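Notes, p. 3: input format for complexes.
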Amino acid sequence: MIKFLDLQKQYKSIKKEIDTKIFEVIEKSAFVGGEYLTSFEEEFASYCDAKYCIGVGNGTDALEIALWSLDLPKGSEVLVPANTFIATSEAVSRNNLKIKFVDCDENYQISPLSIEKNITKETSAIVVVHLYGHPANMDKILPLIKKHNLKLVEDCAQAHGAKYKNKKVGSFGDIATFSFYPGKNLGAYGDGGAIITNNQELANKCRMYANHGRSSKYGHEFEGVNSRLDSIQAVVLSVKLKYLDNWIKRRQEVANLYLDKLEKIENISLPKVNKDTQPVWHLFVIKVKNRDSLKEKLQKEGIQSGIHYPTALPKLKAYEYLFDEEYLSYKACNEDSLLLSLPMGEHLENKEIDYVVEVLRKNFI
Ligand SMILES: Cc1ncc(COP(=O)(O)O)c(C=O)c1O
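Output follows (365 residues plus pyridoxal-5'-phosphate):
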């Protein structure tokens, strides 16, 4: 079986270090807060070239808390890409703000043209998602942010370590968020997330909000939430962070092999690497017309694959209330060409990639 993702293989490769650190936390009963969390927060801030990092319970909370910290006008509009995971838009509604979906470009990233078209007097912020590990087009987005005096949140849940013009994602906006869900490029052994920023005031607000609005043990300046990255997750992430760049390098090699070997197959549309970007290939997403039957054939030949995402957000039942005719024409909603995610990760060996390519070729030529 060619696995879509192989967390067991990854664990085996770092088992000794992981086990030692987890038992250290248990032996010290240092489960919540304290030195292990602080160390990881410092290491991750440094990895992202950010001043501050706040560990939180998951990537969804990270988005909600980050948006909350910006103190946007109640009921104002926040632009969100149509092609992402629902967590991105949920965070907007949970802050009593209005979701406005924007279209994606040919590479399924948020489209600067669509952003421009959708900005109104009511718009207060944009949540940019560096989807599939590809940096969004910041050169086109940043001038719009400046021109319209908007706030920028970067959802980096799928893009730890990705670079745009040699600068890490998460350093372009006011604040950025990460998910450490186990399947992410940097994944915990449970849920986890983080917020990064260079703005001390925002960092302090987020830290307090994520911890019941606390300024001292029983001093609460305001009501917040309980959203913490626990110490067991923090040590797992500290160990894995040391390997992340090597894992990313292997993902880039795997992507280059796919790109090279699949190039000549006519009916497969391949992901593009935009100029000045260093994607981290959280997912390798191709576009094909016969997606569902192809997925079944791959499964029969022992190859796992995924779909990210089967339904664009504006078409979900959850967003029926936002219905807008124009959403039906959005690229992410266009069901002519369908997205299929091939196995991707540092676990893949060259001969496994060759096998995936061979099976795809057999189905198209
Ligand atoms: C783009 C994006 N944003 C946010 C999230 C939410 O992260 P979490 O699952 O850690 O809450 C995810 C996770 O799937 C994601 O892919």
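The chain has a mean pLDDT of 97.
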